Amino acid sequence: MTQNSPSTSEESAGAPKSESDPHADTTPAWGPLNALYRLRALESFRHRDFRLLWFGHVFTSMAFWMDQVTRGWLIYELTDSTVQLGLVRGVQAIPILLLSPVAGSAADRYSRKMQILIAQIADGAMFAALALLIASGRIEPWHVYVTAIGMAIVQTFQQPARAAVIADVVPLHNLTNAIGLNSIIFNVARSTGPALAGVLIATFSTAGAYGTQAAFYLLATYWTLLLPRRLGAPGESREKTAHAASFGRSIIEGWKFGWQNVTVRTGLLITMFASLFIVPFTTLLPVFARDILGVGATGQGLLLTAMGIGALGSAVIITTFGDRMPRGIFMLGGVVLYGLSVVAFSASPWFPLSMVLMVIVGVANVSSHALVQTVLQTYSPPEYRGRTIALFHMSQVVMTVGSMIIGSLAAVCGTQWAVALMGGAGALTMLAIHLTLPGAWRIR
Q1: Does residue 286 contact residue 206 with C-beta atoms inside 8 Å?
Q2: Both ends of the chain: CA-CA distance in Å?
Q3: Among 73, 74, 268, 424, which is 20 to 30 Å from 171 by CA?
Q4: 7 phi-psi bin (left φ>0, alpha ψ -120 to 50, beta other)
Q5: Domain annotation covers residue 334
Q6: Minimal CA–CA distance to 185: which of 338, 311, 363?
Q7: What is the pLDDT of residue 236?
Q8: What is the pLDDT of residue 63?
Q9: Closest CA to 159 of 404, 395, 405
Q10: Confidence grade of residue 14 (pLDDT, cut at 50, 70, 90)
Q11: What CATH number does residue 182 fall under?
């Protein structure tokens, strides 16, 4: 099947900003930074607004990955239940499922900067509330669930706005590089955030970890406030679309675009299947860390750190060479490697071997995230980017469903068998995509 090509016109593909645009190129005057930003891998840093957006992303990513350890450890500590490990993620599927279409349309209609700010403030407040509840000894499992739902609501609105605004701060020819740089910091945080959370939990309990996460969101809010007021506000084409269609019609148009564009549909299917079968294995990491490998919360953090190191290396490659890579091959092949690596991890009885396998898992993981997101934004016109990214982030709904399935499956047949079965199924789905969409591997 022939793949759709990205539009070559400035109107449909997103015109690069002209040099007269005050945010088009604001390279610092300091010589060493000038030289540094001329490197191919760092060229998006020439744009001031991207730098500010990226600094905010540093702290939100750290808090996000710390929460992957902290929330799971807290609920397992309170309930000692593998089912609830999956359920605490599963409840987050409800607001994401119901609100993602609305969030995507909002990102195409209203100020993306304002959506990001409101979401960051709300997330920071909930992290601070959890820290106070734990420190005062009043924490209950229902607190963990309520804040999980609340965070899912605000994250649902933040994610399409944050992803779509990248195309507002860099020209289209820098888009792959900018998404790659965001992926780098996301994966640096994947490496350092879990380890930091593990150390804080071991030293100050989960209260210390949540207090630090709240502080990180405060810092992210500071950087976001420095962005121009009009950044992410609807442009002329987006304003016309907003006035011409109701929210309901706008949502339906976004779904139709995602399905009718073959390249976008392929990328979404790759992400959805990876999210259902493979990504949820991290839900059971507390069981591997405590009961199978015997390394505790610190060991769990190190496992996620190893995964982050692998993902970081992969993200650097995408940042430098992403616009010249055969993306279809790397997306399909990467997810196959992802699934097989998870199967091998499930059978590992030794912590050092598990660490090595987690590095490989991290390398492959980027294929189902950063590369797909680059393809989606490249092949989507500006007026559809918010809705396309909202569809992409609905993979979190699929992931939370997968987390519930893998948690329940672990209760029936054991943690290691559950992870092995799900990982193998995820690898097989990539073969199914290749057979049903034979042009998928030719996506550029």
Answers
A1: no
A2: 14
A3: 268
A4: beta
A5: yes
A6: 311
A7: 52
A8: 92
A9: 395
A10: very low
A11: 1.20.1250.20
How far apart are alpha carbons 444 and 183 in whole angstroms? 19
* 130 domain residue, yes or no: yes
For 291, other C-beta atoms within 10 Å of its C-beta total: 11
Is 36 inside any structural domain?
no
- For residue 333, being part of any structural domain is answered with yes
Which secondary structure element, helix H or strand E, spans residue 371, and what is its range?
helix 370-378
Are 365 and 310 contacting, i.e. CB atoms less than 8 angstroms apart? Answer: yes
Quick one: angle between helices 262-277 and 247-260, nearest 10? 90
Q: Calculate Rg over the CA atoms of the chain.
A: 21
Exposed, middle or buried by CB within 10 Å (0-12, 13-18, 19+), for 232? buried
> Does residue 106 have a pLDDT over 60?
yes
Q: What is the pLDDT of residues 34-92, one digit of tens each?
A: 666 666 667 788 888 888 888 898 899 899 888 878 888 888 888 888 778 778 877 77
Count, residues in the chain: 444
Q: How many Cβ atoms sit within 10 Å of the Cβ of residue 96?
A: 24
Domain count, the chain: 1
What pLDDT, on the 0 to 100 scale, is given for residue 339? 92
Give the contacts of 401 (CB within 8 A, at least 6 positions apart): 90, 93, 276
Is the separation of the CB atoms in 306 and 362 below 8 Å?
A: yes
Tell the residue number behind the tokens 């987690």, with chain if given: 358
Report the distance separating Cα 352 and Cα 383, nearest Å: 48
- Cβ count near 135 (within 10 Å): 16
User: How far is residue 345's CA from residue 174's CA, in Å, rounded to a whole number?
Assistant: 36
Under 8 Å between Cβ of 322 and 120: no
DSSP 3-state of 156: helix
Structure tokens given for 220 = 């992210």
Nearest to 72 by CA among 184, 157, 198, 172: 198
pLDDT the model gives residue 146 = 92
